[in-house]
Recover the amino acids of this structure.
C-alpha cells in the first residue's frame, strides 16, 4: 500500500538540554503523522466521532530507536498500512532524517466506539476508503 509522508521540524521543546529528542516525542511525531494521514484520506477525526461514534486507539506499539534526532532536525514521518481488519489497522511507521532511518514502529490501531469504549467494526464506506 502507499506510504504517506509527513514532515516535522524538531523544536527546542522536543529535546533535552543537549539537544537530543526525548524518546516519548517520537510517539508524538508518529501520532501527528497518523492524524495527517487520516486527514489526507478524507477523514476528520471529530467528524468520525460525531457521525459514527468512532475513535481510534493505539492497541499495541513496538518501537525501535536506532539513532537520535536533534534540535532543529527536519524529519519525515511515514505511515504505511500493513493490514486492515474489521476493527483494526496494522501499520508500519518510520522517522527519517533525509534518507537515514532513525526510529521505526509497528502500530496496531483499534476502532473503538466513543460511547461504549468497546471495539467497533469499521463502517463499509470508511473501509472502502481505507482500502
Amino acid at each position: 500500500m502507499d506510504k504517506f509522508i509527513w514532515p516535522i521540524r524538531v523544536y527546542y521543546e522536543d529535546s533535552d538540554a543537549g539537544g537530543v529528542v526525548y524518546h516519548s516525542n517520537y510517539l508524538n511525531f508518529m501520532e501527528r503523522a497518523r492524524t495527517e494521514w487520516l486527514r489526507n484520506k478524507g477523514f476528520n477525526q471529530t467528524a468520525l466521532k460525531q457521525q459514527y461514534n468512532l475513535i481510534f486507539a493505539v492497541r499495541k506499539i513496538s518501537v525501535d530507536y536506532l539513532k537520535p534526532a536533534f534540535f532543529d532536525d527536519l524529519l519525515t514521518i511515514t505511515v504505511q498500512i500493513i493490514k486492515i481488519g474489521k476493527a483494526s489497522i496494522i501499520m508500519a511507521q518510520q522517522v527519517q532524517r533525509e534518507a537515514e532511518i532513525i526510529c521505526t514502529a509497528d502500530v496496531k490501531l483499534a476502532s473503538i466506539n466513543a460511547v461504549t469504549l468497546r471495539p467497533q467494526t469499521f463502517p463499509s464506506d470508511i473501509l472502502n476508503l481505507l482500502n
About this structure: The chain has a mean pLDDT of 94. The longest strand covers residues 100-113.
